[in-house]
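Re-run requested by the PI after the first attempt was lost when the workstation crashed. Everything re-entered from the original request form. Ligand of interest: 2-acetamido-2-deoxy-beta-D-glucopyranose.
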Amino acid sequence: MQFQTLASLLFATASVFSQSAKAQDTSCPPIGWFSMAYYAQIHNATYDSTFDMDFYSQQQMPWVYSLYKPFGMKGYTINTLERDAPWSVVTFFYFDTAEQFDAALAAHEDEILARVPLFSSEYPSRFVGDVISTTF
Ligand SMILES: *[C@@H]1O[C@H](CO)[C@@H](O)[C@H](O)[C@H]1NC(C)=O
């Protein structure tokens, strides 16, 4: 009898958890959209990637933001990774929609990429995705 009670309690608990997990899937739509630019870093006996963070954070990204803001860019975060990571810098560009970013990129991509050699030995690559929540 006691065992049955415990088992049914566990079963009830498990179904509560699976219900709340399901509820979360549908009740947590994206709150925004991002494009993530990442810069490879290679360090070996014959090659050393370089990245000038002062230039990037004080000149390049404020300039890019001024170009993209009229298209709906909300802000950005610049993040550095440790030397052993495959990427040195990861920057998130926040927008409401992918279409806003596409329009910004179409208008300014060439002039932005032309300035990459001023601060980085590597050109950036990109992923995009949804922002589900932020907590700071
Ligand atoms: C170092 O990295 C460069 C750039 O990827 C590569 O061309 C070179 O072969 C590497 N050298 C060694 C010793 O791994």
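Saved to the shared folder this time. The helical segments are 2-27, 53-68, 98-114.
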